[in-house]
Protein 1
Amino acid sequence: MSITRRKVLAGSAVGAASLASGLAAPAIAANEPIKIGYLPALTGPSSSTGIGINRGTVLAVDEINAAGGIDGRKIELIVRDTQSDPTKAVNAVAELTQRQKVAIIFGPLNSGEALAATPLIARDKVPMLHPCWVDELIDVKKYPMAFRIAPTNTQVGGGANYYVVDVLKLKKVAVISDTTGYGTASVNTYVPMLKAKGAEVVYTNHVDAANPDLKPELLRMQSAGAQAIMPWSVNAGFLSRILNTRGAMGWDVPVVGQTTLGSGQTKALLDKPENWNKVYSNNFRQVCFAGGKLPARAEEFVDRLKKAKVEMGDTLLWWIALGWDGAKMMGETLKAAGPKADDIVAHWNKTKDWPGVYGTVTWTPEQHNGFPDTEVVMCEVNSLKDGAFNLAPGYAV
Amino acid sequence: MTDATAPAPPARALSLARIEGALPWIALGLVGLLLPLLDDSYIGVIAQRAYIYWILSAGLNLVVGYAGQIAIGWVSMLTLGAYTTAALTAGTATPAWHPYLALVAGGAVGALAGVVVGLPALRLRTFYFAMTTLGFATIVTQVALAWKDVTGGGVGTPGPVFPWPFDPGWGFYYFCFILAALATWMTANLAASRFGRALVAIRDAEVAAEASGVAKPRLLIAVFLFAGALGGVAGGLFASLQSYITPDAFTFEMSVLFFIAILIGGRGSILGPALGTIVLTVLPEFAAPLVQWSTFLYAALLLLIVLIIPGGIADLLDYKNRRPLERHREIVPQPELLARVLDRRTGGEVLSLSDVELSFGGVRAIAGLDLEIRPGEVHGLIGPNGSGKTTTLNVISGYYAPEAGQVRLGDAVLPPRAPHLRADYRIARTFQTPRLIGGASVLDNVMIGGTIDGEGSFAESLLTLPRHRRDEKRLREAAMLALAVVGLDQLAAVRADRLQHSELRFMEIARALMLRPACLMLDEPAAGLSADEIRRLGALIVAISREGTAVLLVEHHADLIFDICDRVTVLNLGKVLAAGTPAEIRSHREVVSAYLGA
Amino acid sequence: MFASIVSYGLAVGAVYALIGITYNVMFSASRVFSFTAGMLGMLGGVLGALFIGKLGLPAIVGLVLVLACGAVLGLVTELVTVRPVLKSIEQHLYVLSTLAFALMVQQFVAVEWGTEAQPFPRLIAIGPGWLDQQFWLPMLACAVTIVGLELLYRKTLIGRAFLAIAEDSYAARALGLPETQLRMASFALAGVIGTLAGFTGAEMLLAFFGNQSILNFYGFVPVALGGMGSNRGAVVGGLALGLFQQAANFLVGGIFAAVAVFAVFIIVLLLRPEGLAGGSAARRV
């Protein structure tokens, strides 16, 4: 009996070893596909954004491949669902860089996973394209191969702050977030920025997103004289409660903040549609309606989505656009510079005004955050149509 | 006196068992050592994760598997260790520490947390304790979120990077491997020591453990401390592997994973939970489409294990205990060996009760009882059901405190409500229903009786230092001798729950003999025995008393009482109805009418 | 402010109290503390949102369906996780089988229903404000349950049979009471109470798979504090907990409120392990 057990254990060790070595280093022959690693969170608690982005990414890769790929080589998108779990993200990074030997990695989107993945990907010297907004991810010295194709949290907050202080011309502001990484980091960054602009922050707090009653918080804001509420959270339940409480109190102040304020999920949780009035969320000039029309690139993109029958009703246009831009950027880079890491990085360092649907991207060797300040704008959330919104009132068009 | 040489422990059987036990570990160790040769960092990362989870689970195994405490929210140890190590290395709370020192600090914080979590276990029932561990895990995460200056709050903080030779990559891999091996070694050592046996005894036969002198609070706290330390160290390593930690990395699913790995592996085993941990860490990497169902599948697996194979993998692999036993076994005690077990005493002490009273609610169980049990005598205690016989035993044992009166051994008053101190007075007993550890061997069950004779400390057992080894050798020999005395030495290696009822009764006596008792109390030892066995039991009891032990025998078998007792006391309704020699009692009118019948 | 704390606190406290009663009913019938109490509460909200919100059934029909599902789940719990394990002497196995089952259901809901909290439809058009029906519905449910249970236990034969089984199952069996059927009925009743709690509380707590863990813990605190088996203790404990939690939320914020609740829980338990109103432990030797 002991012999049997020993044999079984030894046999499985040998089996595992041979399996591993067989998959270790695929030969890169001339028409082997070029592999891109992709780390979305398609399941788990914070997955709605990931699902939206995924549609754009997959569509772009399919189109590139249908048009002949990169000089005859197809792009293979190796997807590893991180499940909104940083430990799975770390495992996936090891697999993508070591075993699959991908040329570029796109993602992760969520902050906890991105923060864990970035140093590891940098250690493995693989170029990385970030859709995530957390500021700490980009550092040209620590992570020379990491580039961001989305705005930073600072830019996003800056856009909101600009709207409240410079467009709406309000002075007293209440800032509230949930207790997640994203929420706390946002408030910590934006409150000083507001003060630097001369605004008076009369209330600031982090509240557990599961807290069912936000009335005490809003009453505190009201008694402090707040003229605007700025919430920072991606939790639709939390945001909807703020809006519902504001409506129940009959308190007529603008709510200016995180993009999720305008999501379908938030809308579904509202007590009455009026609660969605005077709510402005982050959005991006390239994908907003201005004077009733989308900018040309976005218009064309929406037609493309309709033709490809991509579902838009339950997500946001800019998510799909972000995913699309990411894949497009990677495809064009591979075509122009080839799959070697240093070539890719060199190419990216020279990017100027790249015309994405989501944003116009510029990178330099000193600045790896590619999204322009001017394109971070606020939109009116109750103008949702085909996944996009109207530019908020007051901007010089 | 015949010169009966003490039987050696079944040497060949046991040593084969020990080698059998080592083979899987050698295989695992070799795989671990040679894995880097594959030069596949992906496998390396998965393996490191398995080692780290195992370090934590090895400690949790002692808490859940051995001590039987349902500690569900154990991820809190990982969280605390990770944040401590990360914060100290990053210098957010104090000037930056060296990573290795920070790792030690992480272990220390884990140890402290282990004690905090473990203290409620001493007073709370199973479910309540489980809930407190869940609450604790939530609290730890909340604190990590709130204490922004130190932990980075929701944004998190970078993990420590260990310097050469354990730097990230294969160096760190070997670091995790070595620490995992150490954790395995230490927990296995503890499991095979008197502390490990005592833990299992507390879990499965708490009353018997107390009677053998096991002090539950001290032992449990020591185990929680050690397990917490392992969890904290695992946390520090985890933070390094992740390179960056955020509160959302420490999920409830992780707690569930650790917990289930141990139960799948089997309680009371080290190899089982190790294999369970490895499987549960590696499995999600293979079953990609099922990955969002992973916790569902783990829970389903747990349900299956609980319903079908509660013993887990370890039970399935336990071939030794599937070998059929001899069918018609006879228990043949060897009383002649007793001289080597008991220190022959002259002028031993009298166990006396004076004016003891005890009521339960409105019922007077004992109403003024005087009793004297003299060394060298067998004193019988008989009476109808409900007359207070077992209650009297329990008062002497210290499970109940008398409302009036005292229990004395010689001149010393025995402290009430302190059953685990009776062993120090060399008062031993058996129980009305045999209390045994079903999953342990007969030898292990008997060795529990000698727990207080060990000299080595908890730490010495962890590292198998010489005193521990001496203890084990002594205890083993003494237990084998005791088993030979009661006639069960052939069954030493057999699982106790495979024994017949009568064999269990004799096993309890062997366990009691380990204390070299000055006073031995037997609670209906003849119940369920055949006539032959009762005769042999009687001879054994007499032989024990002739070595100078004071024997108190509570029994219903009137024949046995009158055959072997030197004195008999009859209880009725909590009071002494009659006391005297067997002949006097037999003809006592009231005794006959109340109890014996014509 | 004050009105908000009181109305919210009492309402959510009533939900906790009902979950505590769910624990008690299962415990009385089997000496088993089941992890499924929180699960039932969570499902009350999720199934209610499914039937009324997504499938568009009228509210009363939805409620009846939800309660029926609760009863069925209670029966399944008894059959699959409690009965097979009762024969074993080892107490901890009960905890594990119910835990495993509850986890399976929770994960199933997380995957199939979603991990985001979904809205629960408004049941009656009264409110908003501190008299909003989302507040007094749970309190009404709690009152109805308490009165109903009292009537059941004191006035009906089956209720007294429940009490007999809880008091001394050996004696009850010796008297010929069908222990198994009574236990099944108890678990079905617990299923109804648990889902009722979740259903009436869902306008506040939303239809969210994470409610299971929350209700498991916060529904247990009243039982621990009030004494296991004591429904009155559970009600008092639940309402007190709800008020305390809301007051703490308002005064010190969410994180410290959770720590405060936990600290109180631990301290009370360590001082009085049987709870403030519970009975003493049985003889073990």
Note: DSSP finds 24 helices and twelve strands in chain B.
Protein 2
Amino acid sequence: MDALDIARWQFGITTVYHFFMVPLTLGLGPLVAIFQTMWYRTGDEHYLRMTKFWGKIYLINFIMGVVTGIVQEFQFGMAWSDYSRFVGDVFGAPLAMEALLAFFIESTFLGLWIFGWDRLPKKLHLGVLWAAVIGSILSAYFIIVANSWMQHPVGIELVNGRPRMNDAWAVFTNNTALVAYPHVIAGSFAVGAALLVGVAWYHLWRRRADGVDTVDADGRVIVGDHPEIPGRDKTDHTVWIKSLRIGAVVAIVAGIAVAITGDQQAKLMFQQQPMKMASAEAACENGGALSILTIGNLRSNSCDDVTTLIAIPGLLSFLAHGDFDTDVKGVSDLVPIYQERYGTNLPDDPRLGARAGQEISYVPLMPVTYWGFRAMIGFGIISMFGGILAWWLTRKGTVPSATWLMRLGVAAILLPFIANASGWIFTEMGRQPFVVAPNPTGIDGVFMFTAAAVSPGVSAGEILFSLVALTLVYGALALVEIGLIRKYTRGGVPSAMPELVQHEPTPEERRKADDVLAFAY
Amino acid sequence: MSLPMLWFILIAVLWTGYLFLEGFDLGVGMLMKLLARDEKERRVLLNTIGPVWDGNEVWLLTAGGATFAAFPLWYAALFSALYIPLTLVLLGLIFRAVSIEYRGKVYSERWTSFWTWAMALGSFLAAFGVGAGLALTTTGLPIDQYGDRDGNWLTFLNVDAVIGGLAVVGFCLVHGAAFVMLKTDGEIRHRARDFAVRLMPVLLLPIVAWVLIVQFDNGKWWTWLPILGAVAAVAFAWLNLKAGEEKRGFLGLAVFIVLGAAAIFASVYPTVLPSTLNGAWDLTVHNASSSPYTLKVMTFVAAFGVPVVLLYQGWTYWVFRKRISTANIPDAHKIIAQVGDGRYAEGAAD
């Protein structure tokens, strides 16, 4: 492997990892803010408990998103210096704006929220959480704008071989970003919703298994409480059933939104990056059928080695164009078009090192695009139906007592995470061999091969060092984060509200407690 | 004033803001190992920066992002040339930040002690690396005509880098101690004062060395003015800290870092990254900047964004203006799983 391959692995690993934390932050944040709003409005104890418990999980995860995000910003300059030089005039702006206009808000106001429980008036304390949440939602927009420009460069002119921004409005209203953004946000809500359903399911199941809650002859819940276990009262049941029901509804709505926005995005992508979509189908020849199962040696990336076993006629045409008859161009037809427009070989530039003059393969790695596309859609759909099922099964106020069903519910937390990761792997790998894909209706010459983007002055050994170091640290921290979330989850609401399990304070203690911070690290 | 010059100033402001604000965060992080005597004191230190550190860290991201947007060639050359040291900075920042959030999350001595070390060493690594990087962008790196590093990964390691690294570490320690004096009460407050007063002259030596190196290499006559101002400010800071006038002492340090950074950035202007191989390959505000259009767009954004950030971050410090002491720190509590046949299983989740 050369520096390019290692740098790509590093970018892939760190980005996919970062995007495990980010959708949970984006999806769970607004839900916590809604819970706190409900508490503010109604004063109902269970909303406070929901805010505190889900807020704690939110924070355990948030920090990992923060630290892995810094790596992302630094990585462009460190490992992809020629990319940074080429795109800097356009690409740096949304990154800088993300930090200045969004991430500052998110970080500062979240600090105020964490420590503000006893320092800020209730209304203001709710306000700072909303500010932080809106900051995170805004931050996603800037990042999607930056990514969308790599998928579909707009708002530029070409000066001395480099794109130069001449229309910031066009960059920030790139149609690629406008469809990708709601898709990403909806996908994030699916992640938050699945966590709500899975964790709440566990606790409701636990309450039944421990004999706290029972059901009557109709299967309707009889809520009980357990005097010996603090925090396992009737309100606790309300906390979990509400979390679960809300989670199920959000999962369903988010699932539908993901499907609609995904469809729009696919239609756009058939125009903007036809090769990505053709390889998503492993579609070699022109046609209109959607492959359900294609076998053979996808890895060979050669059309002679793949056979489509099951296909639905006309569906691909429908996905791409909205009718059942228009053919969609296959890989074999697209390659000559790409070769004619963008060349058959990389330039003979010594800065490309051993890759100078190499032949360009315009077909992305088909096993990745084909299966990535299907994993994204498949897991997304299963997750949405999981939401429907959860809604139906809990209509009588609690979950069935079956252990396997609880295990399934907890395992299903992973589904939207996998769907999100698959989607990103598909769209980024499907853009190869370009790091900046050419805009078919844009300016000639504004595109960049990934092979030309890596830092020429950095050695493979250096990037290998950071790849190994970051992967090991990320791996260890993933275990820590999952361990903490598991621990706090099993602890239930009292893990975020120690006051629930502590004994009734004496007057002396109460006086002293006035000086004690409501929250401290 | 030209747009590239304006952006050079703005980036200098962002770096100065970072050094000023994260200076005490990183300093407090290191002081958790140097100043605190027991767990409650460590938690007092941690909680002085608890509500604010994350917002402060964004100054680094903004400085990096603004450099990318306004001077892409500077960003590309500097970050790729400093590949290994920046990897270490990232690792340091990761451990530091995760430590703040996770340290108190498990009720065990081994766990907290591991994260205390992670906090201290992570803060040290980040401070040293940022200092080394900033020093090298003022004194030069072996970059060729394309802005690529010529030489192996170790080329960054020279006297300037070490001075810059120690400069920021030293400043963070002093600044952190002054911040602790300002924000805490009890024994730790006095210990912070002893630390700051006794060690300030030594700890601030490297930063003075850095300022002078840059001044003698590239300074203009008028850049002596901020240097003199910085010297006056640091003397003022020392005398006031010694007298227990914490607010004035902290203010003195603030003026010191602002004027010190101003002297450095003003001395090197218009060069942003000198090439040690050939002066013709120096990156300057003119040959490394983005187009005027991009700079104009970014200027509007910054003119709106920066004051707003200053306002709400300032408000945060006002909200958390109260001093804290060991008496304010709540007891650590175990996270207990609600499990089993109706029994309250203590410690089961640990």
Note: The mean pLDDT of chain B is 92.
